[in-house]
Specification:
- The protein is an all-alpha fold.
- Helix content is 71%, strand content 0%.
- The chain has eight helices and no strands.
- It has helices at residues 11-41, 47-91, 94-97, 111-115, 131-164, 166-171, 179-210, 223-252.
- It is elongated.
């Protein structure tokens, strides 16, 4: 779940986007007709003529964004995904992290959780698991990681919602009075992408610290290594759990707006 949603590869999202676009296109058509009428009947000079002509570039940009919004989101998602995969591939050995579909729950700093269990009557690994540390620290790390996965599911649902309502939100840029709708849409999308990127950095940093404690079989060679891995897993899961609550408000409270230069 380090990778954002690519709407072009999700049939349900793409289908709903198309239906929303069918609703948006007639609105843009009527808006274009009304704008053309205002330009024709307005005086060649004065405030009314300036107002009608100043809205025209905004209307063109808003209509273009509304139609091509799904491609914009897809390009951003693919860029973040490619960057995340490249960062993990360059920073960590392939055998230590597995495939991208399993990140971050599989491999790296969380390999110890993937290989172990929580039944003290069942021996795990090379007979060197500390039952007390495993049942306390291991269970805590697994619970924290479960909450991270829940947050990732919520972010994925918000991403789908942003894509579906994208045509209307992006078309709102056509009018100065509704421009804040477009800015809000862009802020939420940017905030989610920032969280995904921050998760990747945290996963890489903690996985680098965990590499010396992982044996060739993926298990910790000694009890000390296992305890160190459990501590790193708790730290990574706790940090990844807290990042959305820090980054999302910071990104949403930003004052950056989408402006069209004259």
């Amino acid at each position: 779940f380090l990778s954002p949603l690519d709407p072009l590869s999700d049939p349900a999202t793409k289908d709903l986007y198309g239906k929303m676009l069918i609703i948006t296109i007639p609105l843009l058509t009527f808006g274009g007709l009304a704008l053309g009428y205002l330009i024709m009947v307005s005086r060649t000079s004065g405030e009314s003529a300036y107002t009608a002509r100043s809205v025209t570039p905004r209307f063109v940009v808003g209509a273009t964004l509304a139609i091509l919004g799904i491609f914009l989101v897809s390009v951003l998602a693919q860029f973040v995904t490619a960057t995340d995969v490249a960062m993990v591939g360059v920073s960590l050995p392939a055998h230590a992290v597995g495939g991208p579909d399993a990140w971050p729950a599989g491999g790296g700093v969380f390999q110890v959780l993937q290989n172990g269990g929580f039944d003290p009557h069942v021996s795990e690994g090379p007979d060197n698991w500390n039952d007390g540390a495993w049942l306390s620290a291991g269970l805590l790390a697994a619970v924290l990681l479960t909450f991270v996965q829940m947050i990732a599911a919520v972010l994925g649902a918000v991403e789908r919602l942003l894509v579906i309502i994208g045509p209307i939100c992006l078309a709102a840029y056509a009018l100065p009075a509704t421009e804040r709708v477009t800015n809000g849409w862009l802020k939420v999308l940017t905030a989610i992408l920032v969280v995904r990127f921050a998760w990747t950095i945290a996963f890489i940093l903690f996985s680098l610290e965990a590499l010396p404690h992982i044996g060739p079989s993926g298990n910790p060679p000694t009890v000390g290594d296992m305890n160190a891995l459990l501590g790193l897993a708790i730290g990574a899961a706790a940090l990844m759990l807290g990042l959305p609550f820090v980054l999302l408000p910071a990104a949403l409270s930003g004052r950056a707006t989408f402006k069209l230069s004259r």
